[in-house]
Design a protein that fits this description.
heterodimer, A: mainly alpha, ABC transporter involved in vitamin B12 uptake, BtuC, two-stranded antiparallel sheet, 16 helices, B: 13 helices, 76% helix
């Protein structure tokens, strides 16, 4: 082979995926599961196929899914943030605290988001600046942030948020389309673009696969991870605005357990917990599935805790089944 | 060299505990009295044994997020058994709690060993599954103190040589873990798997099986802790120990157990748990609102990780120095 042919050979940026590969992808499986649950729900309850019912259904997952988006990026890059729910609680508490000084709605939103940013930057500084493992750092800050919320608020409650503040969690853009849903879809598109169509996104996979070689290839790994922690903090602040507005009150125990649900969405969405693989579409579908399951069981008067068994089994099954299937095919070929 | 460094990490923690006790004692001298300290140990017993079990799992580069749910499920199971058959001797209750916990731990271990799912995913799943099953088992009902037999409640409160049975159990578990991790082949395997899984494979250690054993131990101890918890707080409900798994991991982190596996000692885990427990007991004594407890333990975790990381960095530097000198 001459060197000329090599020069002229066309190297595509990414490999073309044949249709069969797309059909066998994780996202297709999730979509099928989502449709199946949707059909099951509409047979199980006569009240399910109603525009307002479906609109209510979306409130089950929007706030958690908004946190799951940056969490997916963080996990793809090989880190994790367990403190997101605690950031949400502290952010909500400080919004209530600021409200006492007569701040209006725009200022409160700023407070919520800035608190999230500061908390995220704190996590990021500890992880990247001091080189500590993110799982233990965020277990620590999880107690610290929620602990601060408890110190400020104790067993009290903040309510009576100013006029207009209730729109974020309770308002509708048009007909049954809620503001929360529109915001979530907009953020999903934004994060999808960031992860799949920018250099920043491509580098996240690189970092997740091999941080050392990414470093040696000129990727500023620490700075990118720091940005991701800040982003996760900001999005927790956004979720805090939405949840506080929807509930209309703040207690320090707000959003307890949200971090595990957000991580469940990410893992269910096909993001490798070890980093380096995953897509935003998968996370969005997983969020939809969890919302559908929660709401469908709710219509059938199944208690929330029984539903959590199903979500837990789903989480293990979606990871276990492909592995077992591969092994089964391998045995057959042999 | 390594040994002295490890020792210094634990002695640092011991010093922190002594300073904490001394600081509280200046405001309230009775806190440092032997009887008060024995009481504090008794109050922290359950956290100590759970931290030891969690440490065993963390040593193999895994994590068990399902301990508190296992505790809750097993506790409910033995409480209902006791309610239905109050005549059963306490030995039977303990054996059932051990086996029940073991079965739940073995499920985690099998998923990790035979299927190859990352431990954090498996136990995140079983965290919700086991607590959900508690609801299914109990139908959402509580088992109250008046439904439990006196023997069931009083067992851990009996005094043996002036020390409550609960403390004896904790001491026994500490001794068992110390001997197991130090003197048995499996115990040494657990460290080997955590330090370097690849090297462990070449040494002939079955990494998956060792992780499985660690999860079984974690389940066994969580089951026992289930009975102890229920008979201590005399109420069994779905909400028992909700979120407690993070306290247990926090105790391990404060105790200097590296989340990356392979590094940690029984003394460290025990003192990490004692430190967390003492903070909780000290706050009301010095008139600090209990609402401060969470933030203080969070700050303690962060300080502990930063200090431990510094210790590891010095260790690296020392090795380099010796290498260049040689």
């Amino acid at each position: 082979m001459s060197s000329e042919t090599i020069q002229h050979r066309h190297l595509p940026d990414r490999l073309d995926k044949p249709l069969s590969a797309a059909l066998r992808s994780w996202e297709t499986l999730l979509a099928v599961v989502a449709v199946a649950i949707f059909i099951f729900n509409s047979f199980a309850s006569p009240h399910f196929l109603n525009a307002w019912t479906l609109s209510d259904m979306t409130f089950n997952f929007t706030e958690k899914a908004i946190i799951a988006l940056p969490m997916a990026l963080l996990i793809i890059a090989g880190e994790i943030d367990l403190s997101v729910a605690a950031i949400l609680a502290l952010s909500s508490t400080l919004m209530g605290f600021a409200m006492q000084f007569g701040l209006g709605t725009p200022a409160l939103v700023c407070v919520g988001i800035i608190v999230g940013l500061i908390c995220g930057a704190f996590n990021g500084a500890l992880v990247t600046g001091l080189g500590l493992p993110s799982i233990v750092v965020t277990i620590g800050t999880m107690s610290l942030f929620r602990g601060l919320a408890f110190i400020i608020l104790g067993d009290q409650v903040y309510k009576n948020y100013p006029d207009g503040f209730e729109y974020f969690g309770q308002g509708y853009v048009a007909w049954v389309i809620s503001f929360e849903l529109v915001l979530f879809l907009a953020f999903a598109a934004l994060f999808g673009f960031l992860l799949h169509f920018t250099t920043f996104g491509r580098r996240l996979y690189f970092i997740g696969r091999n941080p050392v070689s990414a470093q040696f290839s000129g990727v500023n790994v620490k700075r990118m991870k720091f940005i991701l922690f800040c982003l996760t903090g900001v999005m927790s602040g956004v979720a805090s605005v939405l949840l506080t507005s929807r509930l209309g009150s703040t207690r320090p125990s707000i959003a307890q357990g949200f971090e595990l649900e957000a991580i469940t969405m990410v893992v269910l969405g096909g993001v490798a917990i070890t980093g380096g693989a995953g897509s935003i579409l998968g996370v969005v579908l997983a969020a939809l599935i969890m919302g559908l399951v929660t709401f469908g069981f709710g219509l059938l008067n199944v208690p929330g805790i029984v539903m959590s068994i199903f979500v837990g089994m789903l989480l293990i099954a979606v990871i276990a089944l492909p592995i077992l299937w591969k092994r089964f095919v391998w045995v057959l070929k042999k | 060299m390594l040994n002295t460094l490890l020792k210094s990490r634990e002695s640092l923690l011991a010093a922190a505990i002594i300073v904490l006790i001394a600081a509280v004692a200046t405001r309230f001298p009775g806190f440092a009295a032997p009887s008060s300290l024995a009481q504090a140990f008794n109050d922290t017993s359950i956290l100590i044994i759970l931290a030891l079990a969690q440490m065993t799992v963390i040593l193999t580069r895994s994590i068990d997020l399902s301990t508190a749910s296992n505790l809750c499920f097993t506790g409910m199971a033995v409480a209902m058994l006791n309610k239905a058959h109050p005549e059963l001797p306490i030995v039977v209750i303990i054996v059932v709690s051990l086996l029940w916990g073991l079965a739940l731990g073995a499920f985690n271990g099998l998923m990790v060993w035979k299927v190859g799912i990352p431990p954090i995913v498996v136990t995140l799943g079983t965290l919700t599954i086991y607590r959900g099953l508690t609801f299914v088992l109990s139908g959402g009902a509580w088992v109250n103190a008046d439904k439990m037999s006196p023997a069931f409640i009083e067992f851990q409160r009996q005094s043996l040589l002036g020390i409550p049975v609960l403390s004896w159990i904790a001491l026994l578990v500490i001794a068992a873990f110390w001997l197991f991790l130090r003197n048995t082949k499996t115990g040494r395997d657990i460290y080997a798997v955590g330090v370097n899984p690849t090297a462990a494979v070449y040494t002939g250690i079955d990494v998956g099986r060792t992780k499985f054993i660690a999860f079984c131990i974690s389940g066994l101890v969580s089951g026992l802790a289930g009975y102890l918890w229920i008979s201590r707080y005399v109420i069994a409900s779905v909400e028992v120990a909700n979120g407690y798994e993070l306290n247990v991991i926090a105790a391990c982190v404060i105790g200097g157990i590296s989340i990356a596996g392979g590094v940690g000692s029984v003394a460290g885990a025990m003192m990490g748990a004692l430190f967390l427990g003492l903070i909780g007991l000290a706050l009301p004594v010095i008139n600090v609102s209990p609402f401060w407890q969470l933030a203080i333990s969070g700050a303690a975790i962060l300080v502990a990780i930063i200090l431990n990381a510094r210790g590891e960095k010095t260790k690296g530097r020392l090795i380099l120095k010796r290498a260049t000198a040689a």
